[in-house]
Amino acid sequence: MRALLVVNPAATTTSARTRDVLIHALASEMKLDAVTTEYRGHGRDLARQAAESGEVDLVVALGGDGTVNEVVNGLLHDGPEPDRLPLLAVVPGGSTNVFARALGLPNDAVEATGAILDALNRKSERTVGLGLASGTKGTADEGVPERWFTFCAGFGFDASVIGRVEQQRELGKRSTHPLYVRQVVRQFLRYPHRRQGTIELRRPGADPVTDLVVSIVANTSPWTYLGNRPIYVSPRASFDTGLDVLGLSRLSTAAVTRYASQLLMSTPERGPHGKHATTVHDMDDFTLNSKVPLPFQMDGDHLGLRTSVTFTGVRRALRVIV
Prior knowledge:
Number of strands: 16
Radius of gyration: 19 Å
Oligomer: single chain
Number of domains: 2
């Protein structure tokens, strides 16, 4: 087997020495080319080149969810071919590693590498569905390129939090869970649309849901992790179904306190709920519109402002070593 290993040298939880050990371990079982990313989007470019060459059987992403997202978008640049889905393995190296953990891989890079090698020997893999987001036709965002996401997207409040976290990281702060919690609190105090939501959810065969402040699109569950605690916003979301949405129409102090408690106590059976919460399960096509431009994120990567995003759930998009 010939493989390409895409390594993010800035991965939060792996050292250069650890990465060398992992590279040697993988190279002992396959013909491996290891390349270190040098700029934002480099992982996408490398994976696209590998897919187009037709000479690489497997692409391995060593990094966090952002690195994985880049690699996936490179592999699926021309879309999935039903009879020849690309093959991916993930070695978690970020602070949260939602996609890898949702697949059942260990959160430790060394243990995950061992699990991947065992899976390769057993020829164990899984086909997963992904989400695809694009600019809505007939809107100012029509020309925005399509982009895949592995576990979640967000339009509105949660994306604004991620934007603030990225600003802090550019100033030299480490990506940690306390950093995210602090930015949630700070953004809550200054978010301009928390009292009157501007987001509308439109889906075929149903009335629109309006005045949402929060709109989180989930492709799997849990949504994220707070340390080792899984957080569920859409407990029924799965790699085997379409996309789920959680929408919140109120972010008052009382509502935030209630929803924060529900998130901390969430389980695989129950997530946030109440009269100001909208949950929709297993959708293939829908659109989120906003009266004003709002922050947008995919897999924890802030992508700027949008006014309308169209989502598609693609049920068989990628093969993953597990």
